[in-house]
Amino acid sequence: MPDSTSLAWSWNARKQPVNPYAVDVPARKPSALAVWIALYEQDKSDQREQAEAMSRAAEEYLFSVAHCDPWHYDELNDALIEKAKRHAELHRVDPLNLIRDDVASLPCFLRKPLETRIKYLEKSEDPRHLPTYLNEVITPSLVRIDKVRANQASLSFQAMAGRDSLDQLLRLAELNQREVKRLSTLVAAHIDMIFIQLCGEMLTDELASPIVILELYRRVAAEVSRLDVIPPGYEALRSKHNRRNPINYELIPGALARMRCADWWQRKLWQLRNEWREELLRAACLVHRHASPYVSHDILLQKREQRRKAMDFFRNHDLINEDGDTLSMEDVVLASASNPAHRRNEMMACVKGLELIAEMRGDCAMFYTITCPSKYHATLMNGKPNPTWDHSTVRKSSDYLVDTFAAFRKAMHKKELRWYGVRVAEPHHDGTVHWHLLCFMRKKHRRAITELLRRFAIREDRAELGNNTGARFKSKLIDPRKGTPASYIAKYVSKNIDGRGLSDTVSKETGKSLRDSAEHVTAWASLHRVQQFRFFGIPGRQAYRELRLFASQATRAMKTSKPGAPVLMDPKLDAVLAAADVGCFATYIMKQGGVLVPRKNYLIHTAYEPTVEPGIYGDHGIRIYGIWSPITGKENKICTHVHTWKMVKKAPANPGAESAAQGDPVAPWTRGNNCPLNQKISKKEMLTDIATPEIMTPRERMGALDVSKLPAKERRAILRRVTEVSYNKKKAQAHVQSRNYSPLEVLLSDFASSVGIQLSESMVNHLLNGKRIRYGDRIYYATHDGELRSFDLDNSDVQIRKLWKTLEKHIKVDHSKIIRDPLGHYLHRLKKIDLRTWQLLSGKIKGGKHV
After folding, report:
1. What's this model's pTM, rounded to 2 decimal places?
2. Do 462 and 523 have their domain in common?
3. Residues 294, 420, 488, 826: which is the catalytic one?
4. Does this UniProt record's set of keywords contain Hydrolase (predicted)?
């Protein structure tokens, strides 16, 4: 090799080739980016190996522990023992590490807020804060969480979760909305399987008695109640020894349809999931005045998002009646009692009316506060766990107050004591319920009523109070010189609705503005289903609302009448209507009959009627019809809801943009036509064009239909009808011409026509196959010689047929298939829902392998 000095430039010299196997070759220094990439790849590789190792370990432990190599089995055990020894040594050196590990094992919604608090205390200047928090708050909270979990998952609930594919029920509080939706589908499929199995066992005859159908419902309801869910119609259909009214068998089809519906289960399981989650957060001391008063941050954000979605839904929909009149759904909601401002104003007007009546009668006003015993309170005022809490839920504290109030009322009526007023239910800082009552009574009854109420309020766990009963019961006589009864209750009404006028008032319990905490209170009431306000001893407020609605309708209809002219013929009823129209609750109550009057003696009541169209479960609900009076009788009801309103989606603000988004006809990008003659279209789209003419104006009805302005679904439905009509006619004609009827079919059809019965081809086939059909109120069957015979239906047969018809119409139950082959019918439905479970049940998979 020539020397580099004899070359013109040093880089012209030949370079030594790099030998990759030589050890003396200096390694090139990697860049910072290459180092980060290598570390990232190494982390991914480690995670992959760890996941594979965990998968192999799980497989060995769960499926093939008995068949694995004994030496390998001992090696795995030794590794686990060494790991446990290291953790035990760390816990011995620093016991706080054990608490940290227990916190790390909690679900995410519990672990994150606790770890955030721990990290905050680690940065504290005082080193005593963290050990104190871990020992005095976290340690008892972990014990409380375990006990709350045990109370939530009862033995029957665990047995239900042990069924195939239902193990996620034990993790219900940790699931998100998507997982709850999937779980609800599996639960509905399980209930459907139970229903089909019971149908095969109990409904051996098509004409089963109503008693058998009722027993079928009760068995399915017993399976549903194992999941801590109250079955629909349970109180009306369960067996009672002292039943006053006969059993309404028409409730059974709708109840069975609900229990087999995945959407119904999704609502129930989501409500149960939120309640479980909230109770676990209360057990972890995350719901109190220093963390989140009344309700957790999780539920607060969820309710806030729920309200936002509801308002968006209202803004995007209208209400339209049969006359074509349209109302904005948002305006209707804001004009109703759902508006917090209207709700607060109506309530304060009612309280003011009670105040005026009490002043007229010479009654005194008392203000009471009733609190639950200490065992219902989860957290102390300083944020630490309450050692006397027995893991009672918020709902149990509400039920305790309801039961106490009911027992007090019975004792009060036995002593012939009477009162009237309003009660307000609101939460403590940890979510426990307590009541405030504004009551009016005779002055001579004040001491007796107060002493009786005090005795019932403190009778449970009396020893914990000692001589000071103020923690459980407080009473105060309202002095008119210091303030009116309405002024006493105004703060509690406002703080539990929207906090109007309380922005400068700070709560003594939470230390926050009452206006800011109003959102927490409404979310708390919505989650735990607590009735916040309740009036007693006065006429109902729904009749008051219906009277005001009728008065406005009468004013519009009687434009030519003089002001103040009577609307109703009876002067007593017209006086009640006039009092409600001007908004004077005191006059309205007195004209209705006064306070402390039995409900049946009021002059005007709210009238109800069943809905015309059945719901999605096939049953008819109850809606408000108007008003009626015992003076005129129920047959002379006054209708205040004349029109039937339907909800429709609002038209887009820019029709051109919406049409383009929905797919207006454009030039094809290929030379062939990609649209087949027989388009696949859903039944829902086929029915959209039927309702279109109902919302057209009279001018549009007279003119031609502008197809370009219709939505895409309706255009596809019209195209389907236009392109298939001629094809279906030709196909039907060809079918008729090619069909050769047997002599027995012709004979049976002619015989039916002679007696005035028109049978279709399918009905003739059913009769010739030995089946029976119902035509009118009679059952028909065919003989072997083509003669048609019939017999009457008794009442039980009519009821059973009605039940089966409702089940077939709304939940697609084919009772003939259920009776013949219940297992095959269920497997056919299960295959569409869960293929894996279908394969396991049908024997396609054995031992984890496909057969």
Report:
1. 0.69
2. yes
3. 488
4. yes
